[in-house]
Design brief:
Blueprint (H helix, E strand, L loop, with lengths): L6 H6 L8 E6 L5 E7 L2 E6 L15 H16 L9 H23 L3 H21 L3 H5 L5 H18 L3 H22 L6 H4 L1 H13 L8 H13 L3 H16 L1
Antiparallel strand pairs: 1-2, 2-3
Helix pairs in contact: 3-4, 4-6, 6-7, 6-9, 7-9, 10-11
Length: 254
């Protein structure tokens, strides 16, 4: 039993409270894998496919397996009206989403932004499938509480990737899309709390990121912002219009 004790390994990599403790290492066959140090041990994840390396029903993920079943039914029956995800299958999809969550948090810390975007999209697709085809109301709604956070992480990763490519305008557009997606998600949830959008931690984080980016915009882009503001007002998209007004003000102040 002493040969199975993990204490020496854990002591070589102490857990630091309040930090995302991750590293990229090589497996025995040379392939890269990501590790996350948690308080009670180490999570080890593959960089592609399912983080645990399994292949449900021969697919890269359970989501892909379910998607294949859905497509097969539509092909055979012409529609998906009778397609239902059992509570057990929804539970397994949620468990897969947790694995992908751990990986995209790790990848964000490693500045692997494309991987973050891939994995957040994966989890958003799981939410959509469960919401549309879940067997019970619980199966349909339990993951919705994670939607805004997942949308925020996608927007952050997309914006960070754009900044790494020195494309400030694209980064700003990514944040604007993220804010709009969160607003729509909250409207779909029909949240009754007053100022739920304004008080959302996800919204505040993205706005802080946007505020840090705006001063980096070339002044020549001011006219483009004006055009976008006019279009937003014409479409009665007042949330986006307010965002664009803030951007113009910050650009002038800068």
């Amino acid at each position: 039993m002493t040969d199975e004790d993990l204490t020496p390994i854990l002591r070589q990599w102490p857990y630091v409270t309040g930090e995302v403790n991750v590293r990229l290492v090589q497996a025995g066959d040379g392939r890269p894998i990501v590790q996350m140090r948690v308080d009670l041990g180490i999570l080890q994840m593959e960089l592609s496919g399912r983080p645990d390396g399994t292949r449900p029903e021969g697919h890269d993920s359970l989501l892909e397996a379910v998607g294949a079943s859905l497509r097969q039914q539509v092909e055979n029956q012409g529609d998906a009206e009778s397609f239902v995800l059992s509570s057990d299958l929804c539970r397994r999809l949620r468990e897969e989403a947790i694995q992908f969550y751990h990986r995209y948090v790790s990848l964000f810390a490693l500045e692997e932004y494309e991987g973050v975007m891939r994995d957040t999209e994966h989890n958003l697709h799981i939410m959509e499938l469960c919401r549309e085809f879940g067997e019970t109301e619980f199966d349909q709604t339990v993951m919705e509480q994670l939607r805004c956070n997942t949308l925020m992480m996608y927007a952050r990763a997309e914006a960070c990737k754009a900044l790494a490519d020195n494309d400030t305008r694209a980064a700003l557009a990514s944040i604007d899309r993220g804010l709009e997606a969160i607003r729509q998600a909250m409207e779909n949830e029909e949240r009754e709390e007053e100022d739920a959008f304004e008080n959302s931690a996800e919204v505040q984080l993205l706005r802080s990121m946007r505020d840090a980016i705006i001063p980096k915009l070339p002044v020549s882009q001011r006219s483009e912002l004006h055009d976008r503001l006019k279009a937003a007002l014409a479409a009665e998209n007042y949330e986006l219009a307010a965002i664009l007004r803030d951007e113009l003000k910050m650009l002038r102040d800068g």
